[in-house]
Amino acid sequence: PDVIPVAFHMDYGEYSDPMAQPINSRFYEKVNTGDGFGLPLFALDFRKSSQHIINEYSKIASEIEAQTKEYPAVCGVAVHTEYDVMERSLKVTARFKSDVAGTYRYHIFLLEDSLEYPQAGSDEETYIHDNVFRLMYGDNVMGTRLNSGDPLKPGAEYTEIKTMILNPEWKAENMRVVVMMLDTEDGGETYSCNNAVECGLG
């Protein structure tokens, strides 16, 4: 399956990460198993990982294989973007359709690629960072309510149109929009990603 990585940078001990965002620690708390602090931490679809720290390719591949079998995609997601260069305004039109009735939420993320910053453990003076989380619509790590929180009808299409303003320091040509549909398996206590799509600005 295709995977869209999202890198939530965080300060770590005495190291200050210039790509960290205040909300990132809340995403970490959402997926952390609770048995200590450690980075990097891989969590597929915003579910708590089966192990505290998964930072090896073989472990990541194993987690993806296991969870895609257990949690199949039941919805479709589409996205269209319009970008105003002068205003640095991004209009995101997201469309959702589910095969299964239920209550859903969604995330709209902005990611940036090709950021040059030092990286611990790298031999290079600068390291190229991709998939860096920059901004999301709303402030709820559980997602924004789709259809005002009312259950969706199977096969019906639902549209959300949102506008986001880019920071002047971000390079729009290196940015992507990621839209994901979130569902719940525990009656609304937590939400995880069921399907996602990405595209460039404009």
Key phrases:
single chain; 202 residues; three-stranded antiparallel sheet; 10 strands; globular
Descriptive overview:
The protein has 202 residues and is mainly β. It is built from two helices and ten strands. The strands form three sheets. Strands 3, 6, 7, 9 and 10 form a five-stranded antiparallel β-sheet that branches. It has a three-stranded antiparallel β-sheet with strand order 1-2-8, with no helix packed on it. The radius of gyration is 17 Å and the shape is globular.
Task: Map the helices and strands.
Elements: H1 24-31, H2 57-70, E1 75-84, E2 89-98, E3 105-112, E4 115-117, E5 127-129, E6 132-136, E7 144-145, E8 157-165, E9 175-183, E10 192-200
Antiparallel strand pairs: 1-2, 2-8, 3-6, 3-7, 3-9, 4-5, 9-10
Helix and strand sequence: HHEEEEEEEEEE
Uncertain stretches: none
Structural class, judged by helices and strands? Answer: mainly beta
Please count the helical segments: 2
Give the averaged pLDDT, no decimals: 90
Distance between the termini: 26 Å
Main sheet: strands, sense, barrel: 5 strands, antiparallel
Helix content: 10-25%
Q: Which shape, going by the Cα principal axes?
A: globular
Q: Count of DSSP E strands? A: 10
Global Rg: 17 Å
Percentage of residues in DSSP E strands: 25-35%
